[in-house]
Design brief:
The protein has 1 helix and no strands. It is mainly α.
Length: about 30
């Protein structure tokens, strides 16, 4: 649960990862 919270905080409102994290956990995004 903490991992998900951290992931959301890192991504922020921009919806873009600030690092090489797999956004697969957040959901299917057209990032690839």
């Amino acid at each position: 649960m903490v991992k998900i919270k951290l992931k959301v905080k890192e991504v922020g409102s921009r919806g873009r990862p600030k690092g090489p994290f797999p956004r697969s956990r957040r959901g299917p995004t057209p990032d690839a």
